[in-house]
Amino acid sequence: MTQLTNKSEPGSYASITLAESIADTLKKHPVTFSLPQPFYNDPDYFDMEMEQIFAKEWLFVGFTCEIPENGNFITQQIGNNPITIIRDQNGEVRAFHNVCRHRGSKLCLVKQGKVPKLVCPYHQWTYELDGDLIYAGNEMGSNFDKSKYGLHPVNCRTAGGYIFVSLSDNPTKIDDFFTDLAHYLEPYDLDNAKVAIETSILEDANWKLVLENNRECFHCNGSHPELLNTLLEWDDTEDPRASDAFKAQVAAKQAKWEAEGIPYKHISHGHGMRNRIVRMPLAEGAVAMTIDGKSACKKLMGRIKNPDLGSMRILHLPNSWNHAQGDHIIAFQVIPLGPQKTQVITKWLVHKDAVEGIDYNVDAMRYVWDATNAQDRTLAENNQKGINSMAYQPGPYSETYEFGVVNFIDWFSDTMQKNIAASNK
């Protein structure tokens, strides 16, 4: 653990860890101001966040429809930890460290695939889909006990078709969110969906700058003309900027959603609204986040009959935000790669029976968010360049226009402090 020296009284020095220093800084720092510079560009701070947040909290990693059959798998990288998420021989979704128990080689070397068994490409140790070691070769000797060398499991949960993992042996309890997420996603029947499009971009910016940018639309008028064709800037009737016309529109849409059995009420869980779901209308006359506001897919999802469901916005900190519409869902996954490098994966989901070129056009479906993602990358990268300057000082957030950023920083600060404190017990 990195040690710092702190002069506590004349002639004496007390040793504190970097973790303790970070916790102390966050305790004293107001959440209504952006963070001190090291939180955005220092490698040691980044490593501490990977240890205290991304190795402990629940992370969104994919969808059950991406592994529809036994033996289907997807892989992820969480810091230095390769992970495999697989549907086992009994149809259960499981996650394992993607590390052979022989000499540590990666097992699954591709992003996605299907296998009858998990076989290490190095020395062919072979594992059942539930992680049990079933073959290690005669070279290990007659006394070798295979039962002691199964794959190391990773905590894994599914909710409404979303898959979450936590590297912690004792992950944060967010069962209420999983229950609500399953309820709110029930109309979409995501087990019977498919990924129509997937994109990945690299942003030369700290992961928190990517999230901060997402958590406010203060910048939208000046930066996202395509998005604002359909998206309403605020997502809460309690927003002080919300007009009477907007409130009336929300009430009218909610009455229709209620009649159709479509969940819509605003719910949030956890400190800083770390888990949040709310369904809000799109601009009047728009039913999807496309450039013309028309449906991107003719075949609606699940049991949905009415395309005019607005956008159900799902936030899960630390690494995902989502827009669920009647005809498709857009899911975003944030993967920190370094103190100033972040991967953003975007997936567009449609009904599994929707046919490309007949029910949906890929270019039309992705156009708005391709443009928005590129614009957001430029914003985050310019933000990072300014923060790297010797002139940078934490600046104040607007508690009205940037309340979502304040909530995010509040959650980040609280989570770091609590997890660091728990590590020191």
Structural account:
- The protein is α+β, with helices and mostly antiparallel strands and 425 residues long.
- It has two domains: 294 residues, Naphthalene 1,2-dioxygenase Alpha Subunit, Chain A, domain 1 (Alpha-Beta Complex); 108 residues, Rieske [2Fe-2S] iron-sulphur domain (Rieske Iron-sulfur Protein, 3-layer Sandwich), CATH 2.102.10.
- The protein contains nine helices and 19 strands.
- The strands form four sheets. A seven-stranded antiparallel beta sheet has the order 3-12-11-6-5-4-7.
- Strand 5 and strand 6 form a beta hairpin.
- The radius of gyration is 23 Å and the shape is globular.
- The two termini are 15 Å apart.
- The N terminus is likely disordered.
Strand content: 25-35%
What characteristic shape results from the CA principal axes? globular
Q: Helix-strand pattern, N to C?
A: EEHHHEEEEEEEEEEHEHHHEEEEEEHH
The CATH fourth-level homologous superfamily of the largest domain: Naphthalene 1,2-dioxygenase Alpha Subunit, Chain A, domain 1
Q: What is the mean predicted local confidence, pLDDT?
A: 94
How is the main sheet built?
7 strands, antiparallel
